[in-house]
Each structure stands twice: as structure tokens, then as C-alpha cells.
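Subject: sequence -> C-alpha cells, single chain

Hey, anyone have a minute? Need the predicted structure for the following. Not urgent.
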Amino acid sequence: MRRWKALMVLGTAQFLMVLDTAVMNVSISALVDDFDTDVTAIQAVITLYTLVMAAFMITGGKIGDIVGRRRAFTLGLCVYGLGSGLTALAPELWVLTVGWSIIEGLGAALVLPALAALVAGAYQGRERAVAYGVIGGLAGAGIAIGPLLGGWVTTYLTWRVVFAGEVVIVVVLLCLVGWVTEPPRPARAPRLDGIGAALSALGLGCVVLGILQSSTWGWLRPKDPPFTVFGFAPTLFAVAAGGLLLWLFRVWERRREERGEDPLVSFALLGVPPLRAGLTMLLGQNLVLLGLFFVIPLYLQIVQGLNAFETGLRLLPVSVTMFFSALSGPFLSKLAGPRTIVRIGLLVLLAAILWLLSTIRPDLHEASFAWAMALLGIGMGLLASQLGNVVQSSVEESRRSEAGGLQYTAQNLGSSLGTALIGSLLIVALSSVFVRQIEQNPAISDAVRQQTGVVIEGGISFLSTDQVRAATAQAGVPKAEADAYVAEYADAQIAGLKAAILAVGAITLACFPFTRRLPDERMAGVSASGPS
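Reply:
Had a minute. Here:
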């Protein structure tokens, strides 16, 4: 038991980093009321947190190499705890933004790369695989449990309790951080590349900002952007600007290496096939997971009318099976290599997605939905049990913080893409099906069809049937016509949700070719070189 003390600290930190984002997402209504603001402002706060974390993840990994990984982990926890305390006490929206979006985001950017490297340094062989299985399982559990905890706390207490509790947990972790062993440090600590850090932060920030705001700004045709570029939405321009900055970052890093100076990240790492495959699969895993976790709560809350707590309960099977599946992955490593286990996980994921498709209907079939979610957790757990270990085992000890920064950058990009792409596809499918159906329904007048086209042209969101019915009443639509209109919208909701889930299934299939470079050697017995 003594050798797993480090994992208790590191696993708790991983769970904490994931939990409060999920809590914040289900607390939007309460935050709007508390700060007397609108949903757009709160969503901007949530977007900024993701931006800060993604932008500084690579820099955070390098700081771990400079000051030591355990020290970076400890410093990150202090920053994160400070941000949580400020968030819990925030009297104004700008204080919430500083505390949660900026300070907590910077803390997470220090903690996560160091955490990945510390796990690799503390465990060897099958013990390392078990440790990464636990870390991956806890990350998935945090995503699934967050809505349940957030829904309960928001309904019966206040969202501030979660952040106050995080401060307590951070204090406990700081008291126990001595359980984590500090890997040997190089004789000469590398220097921080300030220009590289700025270029990577700005580049990643622009890419993630463009992706996350695509549903608000529009991809090409402007919806509600703060400005336009030659009459187009700024989304693709932001992504392109980020791509240009990242290209300049790569050129700058190569120049530093040629001059014998320390780069922020060595791009030679991306030439390591198992590392490159592991990073690609992590991006794909998070794209699938966050895409589904965008669609499924909409189905449960908007279509079925469940509250945040009831939605969290329906998501609980994912967290349970994902955690135990992630734990079982290392034992499967005795029988098969990571490539085979990841491919099995993708097949299980595909089966779960197809099962889930059959449960998306106007009436919720509780048992079938729960089993589909449980199967989804098993597939995700198998992937989580392997990919972190593959990434860290692909590099030498001195490169693990850099690999950790790349690892969590890939996961952040996958999460952003999952939410943005699947969300955009859902709205496109909903709009196209709805327009087609009302065009074919003789009970709906030309005037209503024309007005619907105008509204859709300006951009729509995923509304409930009650909201649509209220809009028809406000517009003075006769009851019989309104009933037909709402019925067609309800059918379009289901069709849009199914199209989005089917797209996630297609992405899962597209991940298979990228498994080719994953290692396929079976794991040997337990190493005796784990921590004491």
C-alpha cells in the first residue's frame, strides 16, 4: 500500500482539475442569477479558463524541467488553491474571471504536465500502467461526476461550496505532497524560452478561441461575432492566425536548437512514432468523449426535461465503468499490447455509440440508456488505461515534462474540437431537418415557414419544445398550426441528436488508422523498481 501513496496524491489532483469545469457547466443558471449577468458572459468565463490552460500547458511543462517537477506540481497547487478561494468568495463577475479563468487556469497548466511526468518517474513496468489507468479513470470520472455533484450542490446549497471544498482538498494535498518522489534533476537546469512561450501561448490561444467560439460567431457566415473580416465570421481567421503563430514557434524553436540553446519543446519528439500516435489518439479520445458529453446532456435536459442532478445520475454509469475498465487495462496488458487494447476499446466505443443511437427517442428507455452508457465507459476506460502510459514511456526521463505538456495540450484541443464541431453539426442537422419537414407539412402556413427561415438564417440554438411553443404563441400562430409546428420541431430535435452521435461514431472509426504506430509489445511482470 505504501508504494501507492504517491498515486493517491496525483490521482486526487487529476480528479480536481477536471471536476470544477464540469461543475461550472451545470451551474450556469445559478451564476447568471448570482452575478446579475447573462449566459453569454458566463460562457465567456468558461471559455477563457480553457484558453488559459491550453495556451500555457507547454510552458508549464518546461517550468517543471527548470524548477523540478514536484516543485512545479506544488507551486501549481498553491496557485490553483488561491484561484479556488477567490472564486468561492467572488462578489463580482470580474473577480470570478480572475480567480477561476486566469489563476486556476495557470495553476492547472503547472500541475498537469508535472503530474504526468511524476507518475512516470514514480512507477515502472506494469505498476506504471496501473497508475496511468487510475489517472485516466479518475479524469473520466470527474467529467461524469461533475454534473451530478454540481447539480446537487447548485440545487440544494450553492456552487460556491464546490470551490471552497477545493481549497480544503488542495491544503490536504500540499500536506501530503512529500509522498511523491522527486525524480533526479539534470546537472544543469534548462532556461525558459520567453519568446517561444509567448508564440506558443498566442498560437494555441488563437486556435482554441476560434474553435470554441465557432458556435457563437459562425464558421463562415457571421452569427453574432464582435466583428467581421471582409464580411466573414472571424472564426477561421482566428484559427489561421493561430496556425501561423505556431509555425513561427516551430521555426524559432529549431533556430534555438541549432544555436545550442534550450528550446521550449523539442519538435524532434513528434518524430517518435509511438509518441505521435499516442498524442493523436488522446486528441481523438477527448474529441469523442466531450462531443458525446455535449450531446447527451442536451438530450436529457432539453428533450427529456431532466434537471442537472437527474442528468448527472443518468451519466453515473459512464464514470463507474470507465474507472474500473481503466484499472483492468494494465492486467489485459499481460495478454495483449497497447495497440490491440486500444483497438478493442475503439470497437467497444463504436458498439456503445450505435446502442446509444437506438435509445435517442422522445421517450427515455432508462435501462437501455444506462447499459449503453456503461458500455461507453468500458470503451473509454480501455483507451485511458493505455494512452498516458504510451506517451510517457515513449520518451526518456529528461523529456517527460515536455511530453506531459504535449499530452495535455492534445487533450485540450480534442475537448475544444469535440464541443465545437459536434455542437455545430447538431445545429446544422436540426435546422436542415426542421426546414425540410415544415416545408412538407400542409398544416403549416407559408408565412410561418418564411419567418422560420429568417430566424434560422440569423442563427438558432437547441431550444426545448416548450420554448418553441411559447414563441409560436407570442407570434400569434393558431393552436392547430402551432401543434403541428412543435411536433415537427420535436422530430427534428431527435434527428439532429442522432446525426451528431453518428458523427461521433464516424470520428471513432477515423481513429483506427492512427493506432498503427502504437506499440504492441505485451507488458512484462511487475517491476521491482517502483517507489518505496
